[in-house]
Automatic annotation (TrEMBL), chain A:
Residues 89-479 form the FAD dependent oxidoreductase domain. It comes from the Eukaryota. Its cofactor is FAD. It is found in: Mitochondrion inner membrane. One of its GO terms (biological process) is mitochondrial respiratory chain complex I assembly. Keywords: Electron transport, FAD, Flavoprotein, Membrane, Mitochondrion, Mitochondrion inner membrane, Oxidoreductase, Respiratory chain, Transmembrane, Transmembrane helix, Transport. Pfam families: DAO. GO terms for molecular function: oxidoreductase activity. This is FAD-dependent oxidoreductase domain-containing protein 1. It is a single-pass membrane protein. One of its GO terms (cellular component) is mitochondrial inner membrane. Required for the assembly of the mitochondrial membrane respiratory chain NADH dehydrogenase (Complex I). Involved in mid-late stages of complex I assembly.
Automatic annotation (TrEMBL), chain B:
It comes from the Eukaryota. This is Distal membrane-arm assembly complex protein 2. Required for the assembly of the mitochondrial NADH:ubiquinone oxidoreductase complex (complex I). Involved in the assembly of the distal region of complex I. The lineage of its organism: Eukaryota, Metazoa, Chordata, Craniata, Vertebrata. Coiled coil: none annotated. SUPFAM superfamilies: RNI-like. Pfam families: LRR_6. Belongs to the ATP synthase subunit s family.
Length: 510, 216
């Protein structure tokens, strides 16, 4: 309405103008919705237009003539400047938060400036399917394995001093928008003893967690229906959620300022040499060593073979597929090469709901024993919620379409029974993302594969890659540059457990 | 870095020269980062001494405060009370930060903590205050420039809090709403929050700014 009222005024003022370009500029008011551009030129101005066009064309011809002369940098061959260099030291496959964290730490730990040349290859610069940016962004120390607790504590420590680590001179300081709300796990009778054991492990490792009985829980959070709850575990410090996109960009910005380069392309193959060794049982084992990585350019058949010394597999949900290109998992069933890297994408839905009577500012990241979780988002009564599907009912992972029926059937009933205020809510939006799910034991895989000499894996975190990314990046950088873990001993996360089929289960997976 | 935001006056020649050199030479960049690190670590060292000298405290059972007098001298009488727990501490306008809180961690009977205008206090510091969750009754964190809404959420653990002063926190957006939510979160607590512009005009201008930046 207001746009129409404003139009006569503009027409009056524009009548004095001759050229059509100036008129459109005046009519385009950022505050108004887009109005149709009217050209108010007269016949005198059309002659002016013709002369101006002629001038522009002559200038163009002059420029082309100057370009053809030898001293200019124009060539008729299209040179693709997006190709990675022919030779680098370390190629990191995957530009998510884990990949960029490793890139940053590699550059931070190199002893000589320019000591390692690192490139990061990411096939989708819009991050439309990347797990990092689709994550709920939580960080917690409530795990059952001490290694996971230490990883989370180290990452929280990193985030507390994030500007010391990732601050770039003369750029804006990093603001993760960290909400220190804590996680609240609820346990029923059957799993209460596991929760108590976990509590002791967590306390021993230095996490600040407290246990609450059902009465204390009801007193603390009156909006919870404590029916069926035997014990609750509440994080006091270093737990909450933050903005994953900010963390990713902070790592990226700092790593690029330290000399890492990013390339947009997909890794479609490797060139490797195989050393055949004989075991004590007189079996022949082929140990591969990657010589070069084939990086294919987006939307094109053009590719660049990048010679490298080390490849880091930080491809997240697609790491298993990447390892298959080297033949892992394609060998005979009873040998090591027959065991695939057990990481596959698993689709998870996150629903954004609005409930005006919902819990207030101190809403923790609540995780019920049935698997349903929710957390507050912003200050306006919005929450995000979801649940991990049952083992046999995993949704199809060929796309990231959201199944809204899933919310009605699986999420809402459990949510409303735990928090009665959520009986009246409205779903505002939803999205889906992939977990880089480790089908073996739902814990990260960090280390070298025994059959490939120079491929380092940092994948399979099954939903807690983001919160461990700073510490994992440091660990992998130590492994590569120092030869072994220095600050945190993550040897238990290596491939040994997979090849010996001894799972190291994390009992607190959401 | 305030001179970056004010476009009115050009920064001094020395700063411009340093910026020019920093962008072209790695050595200058390293020297500048050393200088800022040195300042910060020096700040930490001074803050330990500074906090000690400029903070005021009161012990349990005593009614007198130990403060530096007008000339900055501090009486050493407090050493008589070495084993008595502290009850009230006033560290306003000091450089105390997260690591500095370790010094106070053993004081389980701390009732009042005044941290007005402390520039190094951020959200992580507030998260660590849970160590006083049983005893703390009064907390003053007004005018601290680094506290945001995410940190105010961390006060959820201080269930015994009776007085809270969150005036003039520059980085808290939509303060009116945050204060209402804080009052709901801590029902027994009386919250003082002055120094905020609650008028709608302020919100309108913010809206224009954000829309302009989207169009650009």
């Amino acid at each position: 309405m207001s746009a129409w009222r404003r139009l006569p005024g503009k027409a009056r003022s524009a009548a004095g103008l001759l050229t059509s370009t100036r008129v459109t500029e005046r009519l385009w008011d950022p505050r108004a919705p887009s109005t149709c551009s009217q050209s108010l030129s007269t016949s005198g101005s059309s002659r002016n237009d013709y002369l101006k066009d002629l001038q522009a064309q002559l200038a163009g011809m002059r420029k082309k003539a100057a370009d053809v002369l030898p001293s200019s940098s124009w060539t008729s061959l299209e040179i693709n400047t997006g190709l990675p260099p022919k030779r680098v030291d370390i190629v990191i496959v995957g530009g998510g938060v884990v990949g960029w964290s490793i890139a940053y730490w590699l550059k931070k730990k190199e002893k000589v400036r320019g000591g390692v040349q690192v490139i990061v290859v990411e096939r989708d610069p819009t991050y439309s399917q990347a797990s990092t940016v689709l994550s709920a962004g939580g960080i917690r120390q409530q795990f059952s394995l001490p290694e996971n607790i230490h990883l989370s504590l180290a990452s929280a420590d990193f985030m507390r001093n994030i500007n010391e680590h990732l601050g770039v001179l003369n750029e804006e300081p990093v603001d993760l928008q960290f909400n220190h709300s804590g996680y609240l796990f609820l346990a029923n009778e059957k799993v209460a003893h596991i929760m108590e054991e976990n509590y002791n492990t967590q306390r021993l490792a230095g996490a600040k967690v407290s246990l609450l009985s059902p009465t204390q829980l009801k007193e603390r959070f009156p909006w919870i229906d404590t029916d069926g709850v035997a014990l609750a575990s509440y994080g006091l410090e270093n737990e909450g959620w933050f903005d994953p996109w900010t963390l990713l960009n902070a790592f990226k910005r700092k790593a690029i300022s330290l000399g890492v380069t990013q390339f947009c392309g997909e890794v479609t193959g490797f060139k490797s040499i195989t050393n055949v060794l004989t075991t004590v049982d007189d079996e022949k084992v082929g140990i591969k060593r990657i010589k070069s990585v084939k990086v294919q350019m987006p939307n094109s058949l053009q590719y660049q073979p990048v010679d490298c010394a080390i490849v880091v597999n930080a491809a997240g949900a697609f790491s298993g597929k990447l390892a298959e290109m080297l033949g892992i998992g394609l060998g005979p069933k009873d040998s090591f090469s027959g065991i695939p890297v057990p990481v596959e994408p698993r689709k998870r839905y996150v629903y954004v709901v609005h409930c005006p009577d919902g819990p207030g500012l101190d809403t923790p990241f609540l995780i019920d024993y049935s698997g349903v979780y929710f957390r507050r988002e912003g200050l306006g009564g919005t929450y995000i919620t979801g649940v991990s599907p049952e083992e046999g009912e995993e949704p199809d992972t060929s796309d990231l379409e959201v199944d809204h029926q899933f919310f009605q059937d699986k999420v809402w009933p459990k949510l409303a029974s735990r928090v009665p205020a959520f009986e009246k809510l409205k779903v505002s939006s939803a999205w889906a993302g992939f977990y880089d799910y480790n089908t073996f034991d739902q814990n990260g895989i960090i280390g070298v594969h025994p059959l490939i000499n120079n491929m380092y894996f940092a994948t399979g975190f099954s939903g807690h890659g983001l919160q461990h990314s700073p510490a994992v990046g440091r660990a992998v950088a130590e492994l590569i540059l120092d030869g072994s873990f220095q600050t945190l001993d993550l040897n238990n996360f290596g491939f040994k457990r997979i090849l010996e089929q001894e799972p190291m289960l994390e009992r607190n997976i959401v | 870095r305030q001179w970056i935001s004010s476009s009115a006056s050009r920064p001094p020649l020395v700063s411009r020269l340093l910026l020019f050199l920093t962008q072209r030479f790695y050595d200058v960049e390293m020297l500048i980062s050393w200088k800022s690190n040195f300042k910060r670590s020096l700040g930490l060292v001074w803050s330990c001494c500074d906090v000690w000298v400029s903070s005021d405290f009161r012990f349990v059972g005593q009614s007198d405060w130990f403060r530096a007098n007008r000339r900055g001298k501090f009486s050493w009488d407090f050493l008589q009370f070495k084993n008595t727990p502290l009850e009230e501490v006033d560290m306003s306008h000091t450089l105390v930060n997260y690591t500095g809180l370790t010094n106070l961690a053993t004081q389980k009977q701390l009732r009042t903590l005044r941290l007005r205008g402390c520039p190094e206090i951020d959200d992580w510091f507030l998260a660590r205050l849970h160590i006083f969750q049983d005893s703390l009754e009064e907390l003053d964190i007004s005018e601290c420039p680094r506290i945001t809404t995410g940190g105010l959420v961390a006060l959820r653990n201080l269930k015994g809090l009776k007085l809270l002063n969150v005036s003039s926190l520059p980085r808290v957006s939509s303060p009116g709403l945050v204060i209402i939510l804080l009052e709901e979160m801590l029902p027994q607590c009386q919250i003082t929050a002055e120094g905020y512009n609650h008028s709608l005009r302020g919100a309108d201008e913010e809206d224009m700014e954000s829309r302009k930046s989207l169009n650009v």
